[in-house]
Amino acid sequence: MPIWFTMDLDVEFDNERFGKPYGLSNPGIEKGVPLFLEIFKKFQIPTTFHIQEQANPRHSVSLRYPSIIEAIKSQNHELGLHTHFEKGYDSTSREREIASGVKRLEEKYGKIVSFRAGRYFTNEDTVKILEKYGIKHDVSPYKNTSIGNMRWYNIPDSPYHPGYKDITKPGKAKILMIPVTNKRLGVILDGSISLDLMKKGTEFLISMSKKFSQPIIIFLTTHSWKFLDPVKGDIRKDVIQRLEEYFAFLQRFNIEFMNVKTLGERWEQGKFSPYFLEAPDLLGRSLSSFSPRRYFWFSKHILFYRKYLKYILFKKID
Asked: Given this model, what pLDDT does residue 74 score?
């Protein structure tokens, strides 16, 4: 069966991420997005740009950087919604943030069908709200990670309709969850991840495509600030080079490139079923023997409960 590749980019305010404002500028938006657009154009990669929109207009990319949105649209990329839940985990505050973002984007740019929660932290309430406002795809799940009090370890490796009571398991919800590729495969655009590791994880997925009767998906996600030094805001040429070399590597294979919207529509049209892969822990093997994250059971259990205890004690919001 074919291999589907999708790419998405979270376009968000830099000072939200790093907790350190760059004066009045946001280099991840001002410098990062144009650089990504150049690369996507060079390699013909259709991409979904998840745009940060909050109820507070100060945290609206479309209001503060309309020229950036127009640049994205001019290359026919998909616009999706990216929302951080700063006010708490209750359903009312989540709906306020999502509703304002959907309305703001759709009034000017048309229907929005894709969503990512800030720091990947969606939940059961979020899914119901997204369905209410016509969102069809939630790409917040990140296989083999834990975010807030969400554990994404046992989710399928493919798109799936979740349950309303537990979105980590297949169920009867209308929305389609589309997980980011298993973190343990190392298909990650990060300064600490080598190109060789990205290739190995990709080659594993390509090999699986020869054994499955439905599409195998490679989902690479990143952020508009990923090309930048988090302190100085300078461009990181090593990350640019890694992404370009990875895209060049992908061109060697029979891969179909598509944005989130197209992937979701084609998955639904094909009436494919969720699948699980027995994937090797390539990321763990690449880490130092002294790193606790090298050991999958430790990452899955001990590190999660440490973070969860911190959340319970201090009500720290991701």
From this structure: 97
